[in-house]
Specification:
By secondary structure, this protein is of the alpha+beta class. The chain has helices at 14-23, 45-62, 79-94, 113-127, 163-183; strands at residues 27-32, 39-43, 68-73, 98-104, 131-140, 143-150. Among the domains are: 14-62, Translation initiation factor 3 (IF-3), N-terminal domain (Ubiquitin-like (UB roll)), CATH 3.10.20; 68-150, Translation initiation factor 3 (IF-3), C-terminal domain (Translation Initiation Factor IF3, 2-Layer Sandwich), CATH 3.30.110. Helices cover 41% and strands 22% of the residues. The strands form two sheets. Strands 3-4-6-5 form a four-stranded mixed β-sheet, with helices on one face. A two-stranded antiparallel sheet has the order 1-2. Helix 3 links the parallel strand 3 (68-73) and strand 4 (98-104).
């Protein structure tokens, strides 16, 4: 038998243990029923249950919930729709979700599964290092599916000014446009005939 403070009280009979627990206005709880002799503890059982539920609630709060988002493609998808859906996939991955990419075949499209594989490989190529392929493309009846999971690395946070990410892009575009603007006549000047 174990006391309320965790001290060993020795082997007691059931009526003695119950009277000792009632005298302290606590409960007698059987902790290890399979031990020889069974181990009991004097405790406030209601308080124990409450603390246990609080610990469980705290652990659920700290757990991360990853859901699977699904994005559907078709083999004959246009470039604009393709780019939009890839942007959605990137947003889902940045939020920490897994993404299931489903490519649906209809009718005679089933004769050309290589077109579907080409679309899914294009998605994987555009997403790049942001995600890893968890389940490679495979044909399931009339659907071809692939699952991507976010990479474990922390996403790059944008600075408040945004100058760090825009500077290399601007300098590269300025370098390409400068020679082109030097060769074009100004709007004020009339073209030479």
């Amino acid at each position: 038998m174990i006391g309320p403070d965790g001290s060993q009280l020795g082997i007691k009979t059931v009526p003695d243990a119950l009277s000792l627990a009632r005298s302290q206005d606590l409960d007698l709880v059987e902790v290890a029923p399979l031990a020889n002799p069974p181990v009991c503890r004097i405790m406030d059982y209601g308080k124990f249950r409450y603390e246990e539920s609080q610990r469980a609630k705290e652990s659920r709060k700290k757990a991360t919930h990853i859901s699977i988002k699904e994005v559907k493609f078709r083999p004959k998808i246009g470039q604009g729709d393709f780019d939009t859906k890839v942007r959605h996939i990137i947003d889902f991955l940045n939020e920490g979700h897994k993404v299931k990419i489903t490519l649906q075949f209809r009718g005679r499209e089933m004769a050309h599964p290589e077109l579907g594989a080409k679309v899914l490989n294009g998605v994987a190529e555009q997403v790049g290092a942001l995600a890893k392929i968890e389940a490679s493309p495979r044909l399931d009846g009339r659907n071809m599916t692939m699952v991507m999971a976010p990479e474990k690395k922390a996403p790059v946070k944008k600075s408040s000014s945004g100058a760090e990410s825009e500077t290399p892009i601007q300098s590269a575009s300025e370098a390409t446009t400068e020679p082109a603007t030097d060769t074009l006549p100004a709007a004020d000047e009339a073209p030479a005939e």
